[in-house]
Specification:
The protein is of the alpha+beta class. The protein has five helices and six strands. Strands 1-2-3-4-6-5 form a six-stranded antiparallel beta sheet.
Length: 211
């Protein structure tokens, strides 16, 4: 059996033996439909963070260019986890390129973190134990690469506990929608929800697409 078939067989067996609440949470993620700007696909989840896990990777695409990308992982431990204060946990990585002057803004980390919590709150989601980091990175090129312009990137790593609803299942589809809102915001796309015109987004790095 080749690696792809073996992996598919492992996933099928894992899905069949997973607890009902986890299967329901995963099915909600699979059935969710993000806005058209976002391309989203399942990916291999981490194997050692929890007994059960499921992962998605996504990119915000405009005119065939990636404006931001990220990964969302759903973890489940039926026995519960003291640090999570629950049996489910969502873990994410989101990143996007920035204009150098934006990267120099001393308030940028606080603003980006507020985008995550604000995206969840805007969807009316209940969650707890949120934690994470916001990292700015700049690259300057020298020697044979000296003609390249300086590049900057923002990266958000975070995790939070989605509150469980009926049957012990969190509303993972709504959390995915909030996460997609964050991706679009960090990519510099305007909000699609009526009344959100006042939300601040990062300017898009690519000149022809800037708004």
């Amino acid at each position: 059996m080749d690696d792809a078939k073996e992996k598919k067989e492992e996933d099928r067996n894992a899905a069949e033996t997973a607890p009902g609440p986890f299967r329901a949470a995963v099915e909600a993620l699979r059935a969710a439909r993000p806005r058209p700007d976002i391309e989203i696909d399942p990916t291999r989840p981490p194997q050692r963070l929890a007994p059960y896990s499921y992962a998605l990777e996504a990119a915000v695409v405009a005119d065939d260019e990636d404006l931001a990308d990220g990964r969302l992982v759903l973890l489940h431990d039926p026995a519960g986890h003291d640090a999570w204060q629950g049996s489910f946990r969502l873990v994410t990585l989101v990143r996007a390129e920035l204009e150098p002057e934006m990267a120099a803004d001393p308030l940028l980390p606080e603003v980006c973190w507020s985008w995550l919590t604000g995206a969840l709150q805007a969807r009316g989601l209940s969650y707890g134990e949120a934690s994470g980091t916001v990292t700015r990175a700049s690259s300057h090129y020298f020697g044979g690469l000296a003609e390249r312009p300086a590049a900057s990137q923002i990266e958000i790593r975070a995790s939070w506990t989605p509150r469980e609803g009926l049957g012990g299942v969190p509303d993972t589809a709504a959390h995915l929608a909030g996460w997609c809102d964050l991706l679009c915001q960090i990519a510099g796309l305007p909000p699609v929800t009526p009344g959100d015109a006042s939300v601040v987004t990062l300017p898009q790095r690519r000149g022809p697409q800037s708004r």
